[in-house]
Design goal:
Two copies of one chain form a homodimer. Chain A has two helices and nine strands; from the N terminus they run E-E-E-E-H-E-E-E-E-H-E. With 150 residues, chain A is mainly beta. The longest helix of chain A is centred in the middle third of the chain and has 14 residues.
Chain lengths: 150, 150
């Protein structure tokens, strides 16, 4: 495994995108109210199958940045680690509104992502960007509302 | 929001811990078989309520590293962003086996974490470390098996 720990990349590229809009009443603690439920944010668990471009860290970096910006989030920090030629990539973007992550298994045409955005960002806006970037034959999606308060 | 984007910290501290053990048959693609199900890894969604130390990025960094090492994972990269004095922290660790993340709302004594480790790492070993580090009154936990193959 040691030999695989290589090619880490760090980048600090503040996004040009506007932050998700937050109303004055939400600004104090950044929780939102929707359908009568107060919660911290929406966390999507996304599995891509029969996907492409999963061994290309530059491409993955670019797609994830575009996806994050599509949700309305602001990118604070990014790191994408390539485990070697033709091997998988693990990457994260730290957002002002939480994070995006990806872990790829090119040998299985499979990628595991999550997108957690708080406040008024819409994580579903990232899905078309991921589909365009990785051309998956199948997408599995699960939603978690984080920090729900009854 | 712009004024809050400050105090980012980047650190690259390879862990001393051993990688999770992987059998020869699993080494090819890192998927594991358990209870007759083949999958990429286990992804825990963890909510801490009535928790402490949520506005201290150095403490959070240290606790998350200890938690990651407890699972048997190898830390490749870490980044913890402090949104300001007495404000929340967003942080991630990129692991050779996927990632750990945390986002804190100290004003609500709430933290949203996730721990995704592939292969033979055990993410549940992180829970006692998180309890010791953040002294939550309540812990909510959900498990996702990622990349399940029928």
């Amino acid at each position: 495994m040691e030999a695989l720990l290589q090619l880490g990349m760090v980048s600090e590229l503040p996004s040009e995108a506007q932050n998700c809009e937050t109303s004055a009443s939400e600004a104090k603690d950044y929780f939102v109210v929707r359908d009568g439920v107060k919660f911290a944010g929406t966390h999507l668990i996304i599995d891509l199958w029969e996907a492409t471009n999963l061994a290309d860290p530059e491409h993955i970096d670019a797609v994830l940045r575009e996806a994050a910006i599509a949700t309305g989030a602001t990118i604070l920090h990014g790191h994408f680690h390539h485990f070697g030629p033709n091997s998988g990539v693990s990457g994260v973007l730290v957002l002002a509104e939480s994070h995006v992550s990806i872990h790829t298994w090119p040998e299985r045409d499979y990628a595991a992502l999550d997108i957690f955005v708080c406040g008024a960002c819409n994580p579903y806006n990232a899905i078309p960007v991921l589909k365009k970037g990785f051309l998956p034959g199948r997408v599995q999606l699960a939603e978690n509302k984080r920090g729900m308060i009854a």
